[in-house]
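Preliminary data (for renewal application), zinc ion complex.
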Amino acid sequence: MFDNEEIGIPCPECGHETSKPVAWVKANDELPCRRCGTAIVLENEKHLLTIEQVAQNMTKLRRSLAKFHRNARGTRWHP
Ligand SMILES: [Zn+2]
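Predicted structure:
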């Protein structure tokens, strides 16, 4: 799902954006720019991916907490 999504990685030298699947970015450290040949270091992108995944997990957690609160409230109102 998330691993198959493509992200655009802009070249710091010429600005040319290369699209790669998330799984590819995770598995590689450098991406050679197709236009100018600069090796784009993927460390920053990996950092962003981690943040994005944490955010996704937080959303899931918030959702299950909301469900829990609803259930708890329901129990209190209708014992
Ligand atoms: Zn480039």
